[in-house]
Amino acid sequence: MRGGTGIRLRSQASKRGISLLSFLIPLFILWAGCGKKGPPVSLDRIVPKAITDLEASVREERVILQWSLPQENMDGSKLVDLLGFKVLRGSFDGEECKGCPERLVPIAEVDLASGEGYLTKDDRVFWVDKGLRAGRTYGYRVLAFNRRGHFSQESNKVEVLWDIPPPPPKQLRAVAGDGMVELEWAPVEEAVGYNLYRGVVEGDFPLHPLNPEPIEDTHHRDTGVVNDRDYRYTVRSVSKAGKTLIEGSSSTRIIVTPVDLIPPSPPTGVVAFPLSQGVELTWSANPEPDVVGYRVYRRRVFEGEFERLTDEMVRGTIYLDRGVGRDEEYDYGVTAIDGSRHQNESAFSEIVRVKYIYIQ
Predict the structure, then answer these.
(1) How many CA atoms lie within 13 A of 189 on its CB side?
(2) What is the pLDDT of residues 58-68, one digit of tens each?
(3) Is the pLDDT of residue 99 over 90?
(4) What does the pLDDT look like over 181-230, one tens digit per residue?
(5) 228 and 261 Cβ atoms separated by less than 8 Å
(6) Is the fold of 45-162 the same as that of 271-355?
(7) Whether 287 contacts 207, CB under 8 Å
(8) Range with the lowest mean pLDDT among 8-22, 81-95, 126-140, 156-170?
(9) How far is it, in rounded angstroms, from Cα 166 to Cα 162?
(10) Where are the domains of the chain?
(11) d(Cα 49, Cα 156) in Å, to the nearest integer?
């Protein structure tokens, strides 16, 4: 009986040892495999990075907020589940409220899945706030949130002092030139400057004006245009309330087409050679990059008018005149033509004279 009991006790102890070992081995493997990486991050702790470039501008009785789309989470991982944004706003009377506690409350939610109530361009989000009261300062912050409903920290804060915008400028005029447009408009008494917008005829005006800062004068020269292309222009008055620039509504819109009316310089280096087939003329290529061809003119010596020898432009810098008579004396001139809509033609080159006598 004692022997049998001892066997049973050892057997039970062995079983307990094996069970303990089977529990410790997976625990050791788990500890060894994860010790260097640290504990796994809970999905509840992965939130978008806070927005740091929130901006605000006042245009046409509206506050326009804009900020960049966040690309990363707080842990540095790529943000792939961004769902939208929450806009917070607070306000107080006057320009400053030093020592006032910040009381921003949610006023809107931007749902990226809906595609409504906002605009995105160049990885930036634009949102408009309306119905504001003159003489009040409004503060804004924005929070991003993901599909699990987890919010980022609050963005930087922006403040604007809203006021009644100035009236639009009148009498907008434009004069087109070569690669430029001269614009002028009547002054607005309430304005401290003006914002000028340029767009193509088929599209909308851009979100930002041509000028980085308000134009203090009532005229502007736009040199960032291409000849023979149609452009639309409008100008808006800008007033100032405290530190906030207030932009008014648009003036009338005008369409302008810059044109090249300046001809190329006359060709140089014209030389004439009598050959068996006729008189060959050569000249140097013009330095202007927009020159697309040349025209050759001829007259008999002592005749009054030059005649053009070809209906089509000469594309190179060599031409053979086969319509000459033996022992006749001729004057030749060459002009350059540019590629503008008007095909501006230069003045004559230096006139060269040659007598057609060919000796083999």
Answers:
(1) 0
(2) 887 889 999 99
(3) no
(4) 999 999 999 999 999 999 988 777 888 899 999 999 999 999 999 988 99
(5) no
(6) yes
(7) no
(8) 8-22
(9) 12
(10) 45-162, 173-256, 271-355
(11) 12
45-162 classified as CATH 3.40.50.300:
no
Is the CB of residue 151 less than 8 Å from the CB of residue 145? yes
The average pLDDT across 121-148 equals 93
CA angle 213, 238, 161 (to 5 degrees): 100
Contact 282, 305 (CB under 8 A): no
Residue 320: closest CA among 268, 270, 275: 275
Q: Is the torsion defined by CA of 51, 143, 207, 243 positive or negative?
A: negative
Confidence grade of residue 28 (pLDDT, cut at 50, 70, 90): very low
Residues paired with residue 330 on neighbouring β-strands, in sequence order: 300, 354
Q: What is the DSSP letter of 99?
A: T
Quickly tell me which residue has 């604007």 as its tokens: 160
Q: How far apart are CA 346 and CA 269, in angstroms?
A: 15
Determine phi and psi for 3, rounding to 5 degrees: -60, -45
CATH 2.60.40.10 fits 173-256, yes or no: yes
Q: What is the pTM of this model?
A: 0.66
Which string of b and e fits 53-89 if b means at least 16 CB within 10 Å?
A: ebebbbbebebbbbbebbeebbeeeebeebbbbbbbb
CATH of 271-355, one of 3.90.1150.10, 3.30.450.40, 3.40.50.800, 2.60.40.10: 2.60.40.10
- Single-letter residue type at 206: P
Distance CA(138)–CA(50), nearest Å, equals: 21
